[in-house]
Amino acid sequence: MLFHLLQTTPPIEAEKFSADTLVAKGSQLVETIRTTPADQLLQGTLSSVAKFGLKVLLALLIYIVGAWLIRKTKSLIAKAFEKKKSDSTLSSFMQSLVSAILWIVLILSMVGTLGINTTSIAALLAAGGMAIGMAMSGTVQNFAGGIILLAFKPFKVDDYIKVKDYFGRVSEITIAHTKLITTDNREIIIPNGSISTDVIDNYTRPTPQRLSCKFNVPYGTDFDQVKDILLELVKQQPLILNKETPGAKNPKVYVDELNDSAVRIKLRVWIEGKNYKKIEHWLNENIYREIPKHGISFPFPQLDVHMKN
Fold first, then answer.
1. Nearest-angstrom CA–CA distance, 120 and 14
2. Residues carrying CATH 1.10.287.1260, the chain
3. Rg of the chain in Å (alpha carbons)
4. Is the domain defined by 209-293 classed in CATH 3.40.605.10?
5. Is domain 150-202 in CATH 3.40.190.10, yes or no?
6. Do β-strands 252-258 and 209-217 pair in parallel, antiparallel, or remain unpaired?
7. pLDDT tens for residues 2-53?
8. What contacts 88, CB < 8 A, 6 or more positions away?
9. In this predicted model, what pLDDT tens digit does every residue of 130-181 receive, in sequence order?
10. Nearest to residue 70, comparing CAs of 103, 40, 28?
């Protein structure tokens, strides 16, 4: 009976709450208990305890079944990501996210089973989630960007990429940021939110890739001589591919442009993507060394002025 009286007593609304109201409610409860016969009060109390005990047992059963379902769901998610050979970071994040949502639903179900009004709790959680989301909008964007990167895989660990004017090897991809190791051994941490919306230049994939080197020679230079020098030079670099490699072609030299004060020569070679920067630097260095050895200079912009008296 006592439990029944406590449960059936109307709640005090927040806007009507006061000391007098609290005293009045307490006096009403005490008067009801005083005027109720002892045997009837005991019987009602035992009945209420029994009903509440059944609710507790039901809530406990819901917890056991719910906890098992949550573990089973996490296991299914892990197997699904493993089957698709997805990134372990994305798999772990999705397991944690789904688990947190299911635990909230489970707790609300248990609280509702005990007879407690969950409307205000749900509203409080929603308001708190909105406030946290607004305060961490940048972090949420990075998480979303991380999911996109891990799901669509525009690059992977050990790929050489250029993004946000930074070039380097990808050393780690997390759900919030990506780490690059630059050629001068600096570690650059870039938020995934900015990477997912920016242009990504992947130097590693696909392969083989075409690499072009351009330089100028003076007008009057023998093009066939320059061509022979360059083709002989590329034979010295075993990392440069030829048509025997699927997807690649033989090196090629041609006149790219006739400028105002020089002829632009272009050399095209095919390489594996991971060697892009290495071969680019090697070619630039050796072209600069070899061309002058054959009496060919590198012109610079100049202007001829003719004056008449």
1. 12
2. 2-10+24-135
3. 37
4. no
5. no
6. unpaired
7. 444 444 445 444 444 455 665 666 666 566 666 666 666 566 666 667 777 7
8. 81
9. 665 555 556 778 888 888 887 788 888 888 899 988 888 998 888 788 899 9
10. 103
